[in-house]
Amino acid sequence: MAAYVYEGMFILDSNRYGKDPSGVAGKIDALVEKLGGEILVSRMWAEQRLAYPINGQRRGTYWLTYFRLDSLKMDEMNYACNINDDMLRYLFIKHDPRIVDMLVAHAEGHEFAGDDDSDDSSSDDTETEDEEASSEEETVESAD
Where in the sequence does UniProt note compositional bias of the Acidic residues kind (predicted)? Predict the structure, then answer.
């Protein structure tokens, strides 16, 4: 069947991740590869306090993964994640092929080549707008 690119966000048990970071995170990559998929990006996103306890855990390690996998294998992926004790929660999103390159580049920490926005131009516009607003205020004050 068709292989799609998925984004997987996993909340991992921070205690287990702290004891064996490469082992816990490696299970995600190994699972995708075992199902015939390809890992595009796999990295830690954050470690923070959870909004509410999950399985008695108050902290979680958020792991972000982009992978290519046959859509028929997603049921097996869901089942494997359900029975994995290292994963507190997980979420999969199937992405449109047109935005995959941009998402993967962003996850790797690179700027996407199609990105034409620059921070310098937006700051120049803001300064110009501020100057125009202050000159309008002066005009209004002098009319009184």
Answer: 114-144
Residue 49 has a CB neighbour count (10 Å cut-off) of 8
Q: Which among 85, 82, 11 has a CA at the least distance from the CA of 52?
A: 11
Q: 3-108: which CATH topology?
A: Alpha-Beta Plaits (3.30.70)
Cα distances from 32 to residues 5, 65, 89, in angstroms, run: 12, 10, 17
> What pTM did the predictor assign?
0.71
**pLDDT > 90: percent of the chain:** 55
Strand ranges (E), the chain: 3-13, 38-54, 57-70, 87-94
Rounded mean pLDDT of 52-65?
94
* Torsional sign, CA 108, 113, 119, 125: negative
pLDDT of residue 131: 52
Assess contact for 110 and 76: CB atoms under 8 A: no
Those residues whose C-beta lies under 8 Å from the C-beta of residue 64, and which sit 6 or more positions away, are 7, 8, 9, 10, 41, 42, 43, 44, 45, 107
- Number of C-beta neighbours around residue 25 at 10 A: 20
* Cβ proximity of 104 and 40 under 8 Å: yes
